[in-house]
Amino acid sequence: MSTSARDTEAGDGLRRTPLLDVAELPDLAFGVRDIMWWGTAGFVVIEGTTLALCVVVYLYLWKNFHTWPPAGTERPGLVAATVQLALMLGSLPFLRRLDGAAKALDLQRVRRLLVVASLLIVAMTVVRGFELAELHVRWNQNAYGSAQWLVVGTHATLLLVEMVEVLGITAIFWFAPVEWKHFSDVADVAFYWMFLVLAWVPIYVLNYLGPRYFM
User: Fold this and answer.
1) pLDDT tens digits, residue range 182-191?
2) Which of 23, 99, 117, 139 could form a disulfide with 149 if both were Cys (CB 3.0 to 4.6 A apart)?
3) How many other β-carbons are positioned within 10 Å of the β-carbon of residue 70?
4) Which residue ranges form the domains of the chain, and what is each CATH number?
């Protein structure tokens, strides 16, 4: 990489403007060398902070009640939430394969794995609907209900965002011209998916096991 300078007229004198030759920079990069990775990382920080604030609200309300859930409110069911946990944790080895295929620029393998990813994310989103039903409380029934829906519902919105992104990138890889930059997009999808899984584990413990076992 080389630098040079160009003389430009500025007022009644000359100043030297540095130039940077970027011709040798790669057309494709992954991880911290990719500007989009930093965008995804910023989104993870923002949404992670949002989830943390929701959890703080949940814990604050919990400590102000003698029983949690309050008397007369049914505890959340565990079936759908546990299925969701198993789906998410089980997807982690798959995510490594998807990320590896993207970084290897293996078009056919990425296409196949994206189909599986689409099926997985749709299944997770459907299961989330059953999870919300198994909370056994309306969002406006009491403070406990509002707190439950706040935490689980906020994570659900992130799951919906990921579903739209995965389905969109899958459609691009199968039905549109694929550019080199799309491979780094796939790696970013795997990165954000990992965040969703790791964020769900403490939420599962707090919102589903907490009212049942930690009172």
Assistant:
1) 898 899 999 9
2) 139
3) 15
4) 34-213 (1.20.120.80)
